[in-house]
Write a structure and sequence with these properties.
Blueprint lengths: L1 H21 L2 H52 L8 H82 L4 H12 L6 E5 L2 E2 L8 H10 L1 E3 L6 E3 L2
The chain binds zinc ion (ZN).
The site of zinc ion (ZN) has 8 residues, from loops.
Length: 230
């Protein structure tokens, strides 16, 4: 029993050490930076899609513009002195129509240019944030590695001590310990305290107390821990 209690104590220190690493501020900052980075990556992909569709839209409108320009050219290439009054009127009407078309196309182009500028600005923002996230990640990773360098040898040392202790512990008792720990019951071994379970304080029946005195341990029906005679 003494060995398994020592084993449990080492295990407890091991858990604490591992928690030190897992829940360290550096690790948290590192994870936040990674999450930010992924979000930025997604946003960047969305922007890329937007930029592509804007470019296509621009192409379409540019084509409209070119067509319009050709129409205007064909009208303005007519020699006015050879035209009758009606033809001249028609040509003027046509020029006015094309001007109105130009006006609409120009407005569309302006809107696209504004959207493109906005997209570019968003890209710029994302780029800056990526740089920031990367710097933050690098800084916290460095600090985390420093912490790891300090804690990891202690973890290894504790694990080794536990391993060498295992051979001295009753096999069945160790199996029970490991099974309970896997079920997130920790500590597994608790002392009896005035006939109460040392963890959940459930009163242990008289018959079980007798078994405890005889065998050295009993199992608490309530919390599943192994109660030992202290
Ligand atoms: Zn209990």
């Amino acid at each position: 029993m003494e060995e398994i209690l020592k084993y449990q104590q080492l295990d407890s220190s091991l858990l604490k050490l591992e928690r030190t690493l897992k829940s360290s501020e550096e690790k948290k900052i590192m994870n936040i930076a990674i999450t930010n980075f992924k979000e930025l990556q997604n946003k960047s992909l969305e922007l890329e899609k937007l930029a592509n569709s804007l470019a296509k839209e621009y192409e379409t409108i540019k084509k409209e513009y070119d067509d319009c320009f050709k129409k205007l050219q064909s009208v303005t290439s007519l020699k006015s002195e050879t035209l009758s009054e009606k033809e001249l009127n028609d040509a003027t009407k046509k020029v006015n129509e094309i001007s109105a078309e130009f006006f609409i196309i120009e407005r569309k182009l302006n809107q696209i240019v504004i959207k493109m500028k906005e997209t570019l600005k968003d890209f710029e923002n994302i780029k800056n944030n990526v740089i920031k996230a990367r710097a933050k990640h690098k800084e916290s990773k460095q600090k985390y590695e420093e912490l790891e360098e300090k804690v990891q040898p202690e973890i290894e040392k504790t694990k080794k001590e536990m391993q060498s202790l295992e051979s001295k512990i009753d096999k069945k008792l160790l199996e029970r310990y490991k099974a309970r720990k896997a079920d997130n019951i920790f500590p597994v071994f608790v002392p009896i305290a005035n006939n109460l379970c040392g963890a959940c304080h459930m009163e242990q029946p008289k018959a079980k107390i007798d078994v405890l005195k005889k065998d050295g341990f009993i199992v608490c029906e309530h919390c599943g821990r192994i109660i030992y005679n202290s």
